[in-house]
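Why should sequence recovery work at all? Because a backbone constrains its sequence more than one might expect. Tight turns favour small or flexible residues, buried strands favour hydrophobic ones, and helices have their own preferences. The token representation captures these environments compactly. In the example below, the structure is given first.
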């Protein structure tokens, strides 16, 4: 549990650090500068075309030197006025950016809780600036924390979530996942499809049923009755490094226009369905027995499990969500335990919620 809390704390700290980059005023200033540069380059090109035409006319002796100079001056003044008028049209954007910059300089940067927004871009907590452009919201990074109830089934295709023949207790067995994910839009700016790839840590804990405990001998495990005291808890835990890959489909796409570009509006919550796969590499498996012995002393016994748990994991995930709420079901297509485990049910299945979705 301490490891999980430490991982979550690190995720929050990293999210806040990332949130300090590219503030809104910087974006405004860059956009203003780009627009001014674009205006100058465009109008100067038009002016040079007119001046080239004058030079050509002069060389053809259709224009005197005095008339040529007069018309060159008129062309230069005309485009100077055009540029000034168009630059004046951008002053509103400059004034807004300047006010934000002055306010930021006088008031200072906000505290971490001033950076938190709710349900922005489908997040429960967001460290993004609320004034990021709509185009920027179409891609991002996030930390996701999820919790699910898990069980074991007899085959890769079985979806018997409440499998009564399972050796573990559904409702008392759980899975905890922390993931860092990168999301990008698939195709054009109007596409309602996104792809997401990440890196995470998954911790599965199976509570054994019927007062059974794990017995390990010669790299094999089996279940046996507990006979050395008063059993309080008996469980087995598997821990993995995982790589999830998902495709996200927005079911109610809404569109907006920004800088003359039509795009999907991803600034508010939406209905979506996700389908994906995940792979994992196991790094630790342990059995734990908590009991009181016959002398009434509490004992917490842990033992690493070797040789009876598969090192690799592969499975699929489906989820349905709206806004910050995501309900998912996961199914392991490869068995968790190998032939050295004398257990009838070896394939994991789980249903759960994404509890904390933090983007930046």
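From this structural description, the recovered sequence reads:
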């Amino acid at each position: 549990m301490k490891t999980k809390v430490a991982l979550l704390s690190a995720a929050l700290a990293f999210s806040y650090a990332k949130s300090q980059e590219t503030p809104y005023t910087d974006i405004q200033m860059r956009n203003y500068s780009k627009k001014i540069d674009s205006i100058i380059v465009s109008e100067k090109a038009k002016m040079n075309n007119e001046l080239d035409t004058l030079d050509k006319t002069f060389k053809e002796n259709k224009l005197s030197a005095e008339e040529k100079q007069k018309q060159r001056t008129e062309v230069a003044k005309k485009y100077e006025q055009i540029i000034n008028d168009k630059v004046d049209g951008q002053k509103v954007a400059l004034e807004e950016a300047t006010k934000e910059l002055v306010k930021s300089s006088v008031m200072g940067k906000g505290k971490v809780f001033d950076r938190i927004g709710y349900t922005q871009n489908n997040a429960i907590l967001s460290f993004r600036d609320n004034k990021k452009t709509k185009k920027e919201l179409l891609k991002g990074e996030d930390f996701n924390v999820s919790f699910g109830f898990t069980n074991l089934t007899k085959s890769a295709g079985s979806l018997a979530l409440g499998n009564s023949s399972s050796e573990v207790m559904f409702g008392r067995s759980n899975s905890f996942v922390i993931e860092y994910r990168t999301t990008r839009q698939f195709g054009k700016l109007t596409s309602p499809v996104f792809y997401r790839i990440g890196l995470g840590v998954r911790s599965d804990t199976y509570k054994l049923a019927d007062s059974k405990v794990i017995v390990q001998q010669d790299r094999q495990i089996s279940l046996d009755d507990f006979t050395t005291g008063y059993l309080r808890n008996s469980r087995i835990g598997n821990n993995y490094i995982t790589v999830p890959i998902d495709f996200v489909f927005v079911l109610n796409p809404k569109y907006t226009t920004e800088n003359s570009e039509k795009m999907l509006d991803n600034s508010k919550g939406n209905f979506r369905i996700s389908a994906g796969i995940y792979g994992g590499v196991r790094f630790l498996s342990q059995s734990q027995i908590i009991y009181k012995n016959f002398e009434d002393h509490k004992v917490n016994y842990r033992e690493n499990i070797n040789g009876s748990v598969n090192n690799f994991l592969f499975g699929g995930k489906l989820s349905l969500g709206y806004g910050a709420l995501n309900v998912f079901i996961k199914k392991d297509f490869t068995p968790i335990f190998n032939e050295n485990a004398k257990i009838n049910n070896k394939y994991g299945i789980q249903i759960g919620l994404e509890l904390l979705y933090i983007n930046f």
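A few observations help interpret the result. Residues 1-24, 105-120 have pLDDT under 50 and may be disordered.
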